[in-house]
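chain below, 398 aa
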Amino acid sequence: MVDKTQQNTWKNRTKLVHGGTRRSQYNEVSESVFLTQGFVYETAAAAEARFVEIGEDEFIYARYGNPTMRMFEERISGYLGFADGFACASGMAAVNGTLMALLKAGDRVVASRALFGSCLYVLEEILARFGVTIVLVDGTDNAAWSAAITDDTTLVFLEAISNPTLEVIDLKHVCDVAHAHGALVLVDDAMATPVFSYARACGADISIVSTTKHVDGQGRMLGGVICGPREIIRGPIEAYMKHTGGAMNPFTAWTHLKALETLELRVRAQANATLAVAEALSGHPKLTAVRYPTHKDHPQQALALAQGEAGGTVMTMEVKGGKEACFRFLDALKIIIISNNFADAKSIATHPATTTHQRLPQEQKDTLGITDGLVRLSIGLEDVDDLIADLVQALDQA
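prediction:
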Protein backbone atom coordinates (compact mmCIF):
# COMPACT_ATOMS: atom_id res chain seq x y z
CA MET A 1 0.00 0.00 0.00
CA VAL A 2 1.42 3.40 -1.02
CA ASP A 3 2.33 5.70 1.88
CA LYS A 4 -0.31 8.46 2.02
CA THR A 5 2.07 11.06 3.43
CA GLN A 6 4.37 10.53 0.47
CA GLN A 7 1.46 10.89 -1.96
CA ASN A 8 0.77 14.40 -0.70
CA THR A 9 4.10 15.58 -2.18
CA TRP A 10 3.48 14.14 -5.65
CA LYS A 11 2.54 16.15 -8.72
CA ASN A 12 -0.85 15.44 -10.32
CA ARG A 13 0.28 13.13 -13.11
CA THR A 14 2.15 10.98 -10.60
CA LYS A 15 -0.96 10.78 -8.40
CA LEU A 16 -2.98 9.54 -11.38
CA VAL A 17 -0.55 6.64 -11.94
CA HIS A 18 0.34 5.59 -8.39
CA GLY A 19 -2.16 7.10 -5.93
CA GLY A 20 -3.89 4.66 -3.57
CA THR A 21 -2.09 1.60 -4.94
CA ARG A 22 -2.67 -1.65 -3.03
CA ARG A 23 -0.67 -4.73 -4.02
CA SER A 24 -1.44 -8.32 -3.10
CA GLN A 25 1.13 -10.80 -1.83
CA TYR A 26 2.20 -11.29 -5.46
CA ASN A 27 3.38 -7.67 -5.89
CA GLU A 28 1.72 -7.25 -9.30
CA VAL A 29 2.59 -4.23 -11.48
CA SER A 30 -0.93 -3.57 -12.83
CA GLU A 31 -3.55 -3.11 -10.14
CA SER A 32 -5.55 -6.21 -9.33
CA VAL A 33 -9.29 -6.39 -9.82
CA PHE A 34 -10.94 -8.03 -6.83
CA LEU A 35 -14.13 -9.55 -8.20
CA THR A 36 -15.50 -10.61 -4.86
CA GLN A 37 -18.69 -9.76 -3.02
CA GLY A 38 -17.58 -10.76 0.47
CA PHE A 39 -14.52 -11.39 2.62
CA VAL A 40 -13.36 -14.21 4.96
CA TYR A 41 -12.61 -13.78 8.67
CA GLU A 42 -10.09 -15.89 10.57
CA THR A 43 -12.46 -16.32 13.50
CA ALA A 44 -15.98 -15.47 14.59
CA ALA A 45 -14.49 -12.93 16.98
CA ALA A 46 -12.64 -11.29 14.08
CA ALA A 47 -15.92 -11.03 12.15
CA GLU A 48 -17.61 -9.45 15.16
CA ALA A 49 -14.77 -6.96 15.61
CA ARG A 50 -14.89 -5.86 11.98
CA PHE A 51 -18.62 -5.17 12.16
CA VAL A 52 -17.97 -3.03 15.22
CA GLU A 53 -15.20 -1.03 13.55
CA ILE A 54 -13.72 -1.40 10.06
CA GLY A 55 -9.95 -0.87 9.94
CA GLU A 56 -8.04 1.23 7.42
CA ASP A 57 -7.55 -1.61 4.95
CA GLU A 58 -10.38 -3.96 5.90
CA PHE A 59 -13.58 -4.80 4.05
CA ILE A 60 -16.93 -6.46 4.78
CA TYR A 61 -19.00 -6.52 1.59
CA ALA A 62 -18.60 -5.05 -1.90
CA ARG A 63 -21.63 -2.81 -1.41
CA TYR A 64 -19.69 -1.18 1.44
CA GLY A 65 -16.25 -1.25 -0.19
CA ASN A 66 -13.69 -3.39 -1.98
CA PRO A 67 -9.87 -3.13 -2.43
CA THR A 68 -10.19 -2.17 -6.11
CA MET A 69 -12.85 0.42 -5.37
CA ARG A 70 -10.76 1.89 -2.54
CA MET A 71 -7.77 2.24 -4.84
CA PHE A 72 -9.89 4.21 -7.28
CA GLU A 73 -11.55 6.32 -4.56
CA GLU A 74 -8.22 7.28 -3.02
CA ARG A 75 -6.59 7.98 -6.38
CA ILE A 76 -9.31 10.25 -7.78
CA SER A 77 -10.07 12.08 -4.52
CA GLY A 78 -6.37 12.74 -3.90
CA TYR A 79 -5.99 14.04 -7.44
CA LEU A 80 -8.91 16.44 -6.95
CA GLY A 81 -7.50 17.63 -3.62
CA PHE A 82 -10.13 16.09 -1.33
CA ALA A 83 -9.62 13.87 1.71
CA ASP A 84 -11.78 10.96 0.54
CA GLY A 85 -14.21 9.69 -2.08
CA PHE A 86 -17.04 7.22 -2.58
CA ALA A 87 -17.32 5.47 -5.95
CA CYS A 88 -20.85 5.12 -7.33
CA ALA A 89 -22.65 3.17 -10.04
CA SER A 90 -23.15 6.29 -12.21
CA GLY A 91 -22.86 10.06 -12.13
CA MET A 92 -26.53 10.37 -11.26
CA ALA A 93 -26.16 7.77 -8.48
CA ALA A 94 -23.50 10.10 -7.06
CA VAL A 95 -25.75 13.17 -7.36
CA ASN A 96 -28.81 11.44 -5.93
CA GLY A 97 -26.83 9.76 -3.16
CA THR A 98 -25.22 13.00 -2.02
CA LEU A 99 -28.48 14.94 -1.98
CA MET A 100 -30.44 12.19 -0.24
CA ALA A 101 -27.69 11.61 2.33
CA LEU A 102 -27.31 15.26 3.29
CA LEU A 103 -30.90 16.58 3.12
CA LYS A 104 -34.09 16.05 5.10
CA ALA A 105 -37.62 17.45 5.21
CA GLY A 106 -37.58 21.16 6.00
CA ASP A 107 -34.13 21.80 4.50
CA ARG A 108 -33.57 24.43 1.82
CA VAL A 109 -31.48 24.04 -1.35
CA VAL A 110 -30.37 26.90 -3.58
CA ALA A 111 -29.29 25.70 -7.02
CA SER A 112 -28.43 27.06 -10.41
CA ARG A 113 -31.34 26.72 -12.82
CA ALA A 114 -28.90 25.56 -15.55
CA LEU A 115 -28.63 21.97 -14.35
CA PHE A 116 -28.70 18.66 -16.20
CA GLY A 117 -32.30 17.49 -16.60
CA SER A 118 -31.90 14.47 -14.31
CA CYS A 119 -30.50 16.69 -11.56
CA LEU A 120 -33.50 18.99 -11.86
CA TYR A 121 -35.77 15.93 -11.65
CA VAL A 122 -34.16 14.80 -8.38
CA LEU A 123 -34.49 18.29 -6.92
CA GLU A 124 -37.95 19.29 -8.14
CA GLU A 125 -39.76 15.94 -8.39
CA ILE A 126 -38.22 13.85 -5.60
CA LEU A 127 -36.75 16.08 -2.90
CA ALA A 128 -39.54 18.66 -3.17
CA ARG A 129 -42.06 15.84 -2.73
CA PHE A 130 -40.44 14.99 0.61
CA GLY A 131 -40.51 18.51 1.99
CA VAL A 132 -37.20 20.00 0.81
CA THR A 133 -37.51 23.59 -0.43
CA ILE A 134 -35.84 24.13 -3.82
CA VAL A 135 -34.85 27.62 -5.00
CA LEU A 136 -33.43 28.01 -8.52
CA VAL A 137 -31.41 31.07 -9.55
CA ASP A 138 -29.60 32.43 -12.58
CA GLY A 139 -26.17 30.95 -11.93
CA THR A 140 -24.35 33.74 -13.75
CA ASP A 141 -25.86 36.42 -11.50
CA ASN A 142 -23.80 36.92 -8.33
CA ALA A 143 -26.46 39.18 -6.85
CA ALA A 144 -29.05 36.43 -7.30
CA TRP A 145 -26.89 33.99 -5.34
CA SER A 146 -26.30 36.56 -2.59
CA ALA A 147 -30.04 37.22 -2.28
CA ALA A 148 -31.14 33.58 -2.39
CA ILE A 149 -28.62 32.06 0.02
CA THR A 150 -29.82 32.76 3.56
CA ASP A 151 -29.20 31.42 7.05
CA ASP A 152 -31.82 28.70 6.53
CA THR A 153 -30.04 27.36 3.42
CA THR A 154 -28.66 23.86 3.96
CA LEU A 155 -26.94 23.19 0.68
CA VAL A 156 -25.98 24.96 -2.56
CA PHE A 157 -25.80 22.92 -5.77
CA LEU A 158 -24.43 23.92 -9.17
CA GLU A 159 -22.54 22.86 -12.26
CA ALA A 160 -19.20 24.68 -12.47
CA ILE A 161 -19.81 24.85 -16.24
CA SER A 162 -23.39 24.16 -17.28
CA ASN A 163 -24.53 21.48 -19.69
CA PRO A 164 -25.24 22.20 -22.50
CA THR A 165 -25.10 26.01 -22.65
CA LEU A 166 -21.64 26.35 -21.04
CA GLU A 167 -22.55 29.05 -18.53
CA VAL A 168 -19.65 29.71 -16.14
CA ILE A 169 -20.43 30.38 -12.48
CA ASP A 170 -18.30 32.56 -10.20
CA LEU A 171 -17.63 29.65 -7.88
CA LYS A 172 -15.52 31.52 -5.33
CA HIS A 173 -18.31 34.05 -4.85
CA VAL A 174 -20.90 31.31 -4.37
CA CYS A 175 -18.70 29.43 -1.90
CA ASP A 176 -17.97 32.57 0.12
CA VAL A 177 -21.66 33.49 0.35
CA ALA A 178 -22.75 29.93 1.17
CA HIS A 179 -20.14 29.45 3.88
CA ALA A 180 -21.01 32.81 5.44
CA HIS A 181 -24.49 31.35 5.99
CA GLY A 182 -23.31 27.90 7.09
CA ALA A 183 -24.36 26.06 3.90
CA LEU A 184 -22.46 23.28 2.13
CA VAL A 185 -21.48 23.73 -1.52
CA LEU A 186 -21.88 20.79 -3.89
CA VAL A 187 -20.35 21.12 -7.38
CA ASP A 188 -21.01 18.95 -10.43
CA ASP A 189 -17.65 18.88 -12.23
CA ALA A 190 -18.67 16.88 -15.32
CA MET A 191 -18.16 19.68 -17.85
CA ALA A 192 -15.22 21.31 -16.06
CA THR A 193 -13.47 17.89 -16.15
CA PRO A 194 -11.35 16.41 -13.32
CA VAL A 195 -8.21 17.77 -15.00
CA PHE A 196 -9.36 21.41 -15.00
CA SER A 197 -11.58 21.26 -11.90
CA TYR A 198 -11.30 24.29 -9.65
CA ALA A 199 -13.94 23.20 -7.14
CA ARG A 200 -11.52 22.59 -4.29
CA ALA A 201 -9.46 25.69 -5.02
CA CYS A 202 -12.57 27.87 -4.87
CA GLY A 203 -13.70 26.38 -1.58
CA ALA A 204 -16.38 23.85 -2.59
CA ASP A 205 -17.10 21.24 0.07
CA ILE A 206 -18.01 18.37 -2.24
CA SER A 207 -17.24 17.63 -5.89
CA ILE A 208 -19.18 15.10 -7.92
CA VAL A 209 -17.61 13.68 -11.07
CA SER A 210 -19.46 11.59 -13.62
CA THR A 211 -16.63 9.16 -14.31
CA THR A 212 -18.64 7.90 -17.29
CA LYS A 213 -17.25 10.98 -19.03
CA HIS A 214 -13.57 11.96 -18.97
CA VAL A 215 -12.32 9.32 -16.54
CA ASP A 216 -13.54 6.39 -18.64
CA GLY A 217 -13.21 8.50 -21.76
CA GLN A 218 -13.88 5.70 -24.21
CA GLY A 219 -17.59 5.00 -24.03
CA ARG A 220 -17.33 1.84 -21.94
CA MET A 221 -18.38 2.19 -18.32
CA LEU A 222 -20.94 4.09 -16.27
CA GLY A 223 -19.61 5.51 -13.03
CA GLY A 224 -19.50 8.42 -10.63
CA VAL A 225 -17.57 9.54 -7.58
CA ILE A 226 -18.35 11.82 -4.62
CA CYS A 227 -15.28 13.58 -3.23
CA GLY A 228 -15.14 15.63 -0.04
CA PRO A 229 -14.15 15.71 3.64
CA ARG A 230 -13.65 12.30 5.22
CA GLU A 231 -16.24 12.92 7.92
CA ILE A 232 -18.92 13.51 5.27
CA ILE A 233 -17.83 10.78 2.84
CA ARG A 234 -17.37 8.07 5.50
CA GLY A 235 -20.28 9.42 7.52
CA PRO A 236 -23.69 10.19 6.00
CA ILE A 237 -22.76 9.49 2.38
CA GLU A 238 -21.24 6.05 2.98
CA ALA A 239 -24.11 5.15 5.30
CA TYR A 240 -26.71 6.06 2.69
CA MET A 241 -24.89 4.50 -0.27
CA LYS A 242 -24.08 1.18 1.37
CA HIS A 243 -27.66 0.68 2.51
CA THR A 244 -29.26 1.68 -0.81
CA GLY A 245 -26.90 -0.12 -3.18
CA GLY A 246 -25.41 2.68 -5.28
CA ALA A 247 -21.77 1.54 -5.10
CA MET A 248 -19.56 1.12 -8.17
CA ASN A 249 -18.76 -2.44 -9.21
CA PRO A 250 -15.12 -3.55 -8.91
CA PHE A 251 -14.54 -4.16 -12.61
CA THR A 252 -15.62 -0.60 -13.42
CA ALA A 253 -13.29 0.67 -10.69
CA TRP A 254 -10.43 -1.31 -12.25
CA THR A 255 -11.05 0.06 -15.76
CA HIS A 256 -11.22 3.54 -14.25
CA LEU A 257 -7.89 3.01 -12.50
CA LYS A 258 -6.26 2.14 -15.80
CA ALA A 259 -7.96 5.09 -17.52
CA LEU A 260 -6.67 7.53 -14.89
CA GLU A 261 -3.13 6.80 -16.04
CA THR A 262 -3.80 8.62 -19.32
CA LEU A 263 -6.42 11.12 -18.10
CA GLU A 264 -4.22 14.22 -18.22
CA LEU A 265 -2.77 13.33 -21.61
CA ARG A 266 -6.19 12.73 -23.14
CA VAL A 267 -8.11 15.63 -21.64
CA ARG A 268 -5.42 18.24 -22.24
CA ALA A 269 -5.19 17.19 -25.89
CA GLN A 270 -8.99 17.31 -26.21
CA ALA A 271 -9.22 20.74 -24.57
CA ASN A 272 -6.55 22.17 -26.90
CA ALA A 273 -8.40 20.72 -29.88
CA THR A 274 -11.75 22.11 -28.70
CA LEU A 275 -10.36 25.64 -28.50
CA ALA A 276 -8.82 25.21 -31.95
CA VAL A 277 -12.17 24.09 -33.41
CA ALA A 278 -13.96 27.02 -31.75
CA GLU A 279 -11.43 29.44 -33.22
CA ALA A 280 -11.76 27.87 -36.69
CA LEU A 281 -15.58 28.09 -36.68
CA SER A 282 -15.86 31.55 -35.13
CA GLY A 283 -17.51 33.90 -37.61
CA HIS A 284 -18.69 31.13 -39.95
CA PRO A 285 -21.59 32.46 -42.06
CA LYS A 286 -23.84 29.48 -41.22
CA LEU A 287 -23.47 30.10 -37.47
CA THR A 288 -24.89 32.81 -35.25
CA ALA A 289 -22.68 31.89 -32.27
CA VAL A 290 -19.76 29.72 -31.20
CA ARG A 291 -19.27 29.20 -27.49
CA TYR A 292 -16.38 27.72 -25.51
CA PRO A 293 -15.61 29.02 -21.99
CA THR A 294 -12.07 30.28 -22.65
CA HIS A 295 -12.70 31.46 -26.23
CA LYS A 296 -12.85 35.20 -26.89
CA ASP A 297 -16.48 35.04 -28.04
CA HIS A 298 -17.72 33.59 -24.74
CA PRO A 299 -19.35 36.34 -22.63
CA GLN A 300 -17.66 34.99 -19.48
CA GLN A 301 -14.20 34.34 -20.93
CA ALA A 302 -12.45 36.46 -18.27
CA LEU A 303 -14.11 34.55 -15.42
CA ALA A 304 -13.40 31.19 -17.09
CA LEU A 305 -9.71 32.06 -17.47
CA ALA A 306 -9.50 33.36 -13.91
CA GLN A 307 -10.93 30.14 -12.47
CA GLY A 308 -9.60 27.37 -14.70
CA GLU A 309 -6.70 26.52 -16.92
CA ALA A 310 -8.99 25.51 -19.80
CA GLY A 311 -12.69 25.31 -20.61
CA GLY A 312 -13.09 21.55 -20.91
CA THR A 313 -13.65 19.39 -23.98
CA VAL A 314 -17.11 20.58 -25.05
CA MET A 315 -18.19 23.56 -27.15
CA THR A 316 -21.52 24.66 -28.59
CA MET A 317 -22.60 26.42 -31.73
CA GLU A 318 -25.83 27.97 -32.93
CA VAL A 319 -26.74 26.92 -36.48
CA LYS A 320 -28.81 29.32 -38.56
CA GLY A 321 -32.11 27.83 -39.68
CA GLY A 322 -33.08 25.99 -36.49
CA LYS A 323 -33.89 22.30 -36.26
CA GLU A 324 -34.07 21.53 -39.98
CA ALA A 325 -30.70 23.13 -40.66
CA CYS A 326 -29.22 21.40 -37.61
CA PHE A 327 -30.42 18.02 -38.76
CA ARG A 328 -28.98 18.55 -42.25
CA PHE A 329 -25.67 19.52 -40.65
CA LEU A 330 -25.64 16.53 -38.31
CA ASP A 331 -26.57 14.07 -41.04
CA ALA A 332 -23.74 15.38 -43.23
CA LEU A 333 -20.98 14.70 -40.68
CA LYS A 334 -18.56 11.98 -41.77
CA ILE A 335 -16.16 11.64 -38.82
CA ILE A 336 -18.05 13.12 -35.89
CA ILE A 337 -20.76 10.77 -34.66
CA ILE A 338 -24.27 11.62 -33.47
CA SER A 339 -24.82 10.51 -29.88
CA ASN A 340 -25.88 11.89 -26.51
CA ASN A 341 -22.76 11.34 -24.41
CA PHE A 342 -19.73 13.61 -24.19
CA ALA A 343 -16.04 13.40 -23.23
CA ASP A 344 -15.38 10.35 -25.40
CA ALA A 345 -12.22 9.66 -27.44
CA LYS A 346 -14.55 9.89 -30.45
CA SER A 347 -15.95 13.33 -31.29
CA ILE A 348 -19.71 13.53 -30.71
CA ALA A 349 -22.39 15.94 -31.90
CA THR A 350 -25.64 16.29 -29.93
CA HIS A 351 -28.85 18.23 -30.57
CA PRO A 352 -29.92 18.86 -26.94
CA ALA A 353 -33.39 20.25 -27.70
CA THR A 354 -34.53 16.93 -29.19
CA THR A 355 -32.43 14.49 -27.14
CA THR A 356 -30.79 15.11 -23.75
CA HIS A 357 -33.05 18.03 -22.80
CA GLN A 358 -36.12 17.06 -24.86
CA ARG A 359 -38.40 16.62 -21.85
CA LEU A 360 -37.79 20.05 -20.40
CA PRO A 361 -40.80 22.36 -20.82
CA GLN A 362 -40.34 24.80 -23.71
CA GLU A 363 -40.40 27.73 -21.32
CA GLN A 364 -37.47 26.22 -19.41
CA LYS A 365 -35.56 25.53 -22.63
CA ASP A 366 -36.07 29.15 -23.65
CA THR A 367 -34.84 30.38 -20.27
CA LEU A 368 -31.74 28.20 -20.44
CA GLY A 369 -30.98 29.04 -24.07
CA ILE A 370 -31.52 25.51 -25.39
CA THR A 371 -32.75 26.47 -28.86
CA ASP A 372 -33.56 24.39 -31.92
CA GLY A 373 -30.34 25.68 -33.47
CA LEU A 374 -28.05 24.64 -30.60
CA VAL A 375 -25.52 21.87 -31.25
CA ARG A 376 -23.24 20.52 -28.51
CA LEU A 377 -19.86 19.29 -29.77
CA SER A 378 -17.70 17.00 -27.66
CA ILE A 379 -14.24 17.00 -29.19
CA GLY A 380 -12.32 13.71 -29.10
CA LEU A 381 -8.83 12.56 -29.94
CA GLU A 382 -8.97 12.64 -33.74
CA ASP A 383 -6.69 14.94 -35.73
CA VAL A 384 -8.05 18.45 -35.22
CA ASP A 385 -7.61 19.39 -38.89
CA ASP A 386 -9.79 16.43 -39.90
CA LEU A 387 -12.46 17.51 -37.43
CA ILE A 388 -12.49 21.11 -38.68
CA ALA A 389 -12.72 19.91 -42.29
CA ASP A 390 -15.62 17.62 -41.37
CA LEU A 391 -17.50 20.40 -39.60
CA VAL A 392 -16.98 22.89 -42.42
CA GLN A 393 -18.19 20.49 -45.12
CA ALA A 394 -21.25 19.61 -43.02
CA LEU A 395 -22.04 23.29 -42.43
CA ASP A 396 -21.96 23.81 -46.19
CA GLN A 397 -24.95 21.47 -46.35
CA ALA A 398 -26.86 23.08 -43.49
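The mean pLDDT is 94. The two ends are 56 Å apart (CA to CA).
thats it, cya
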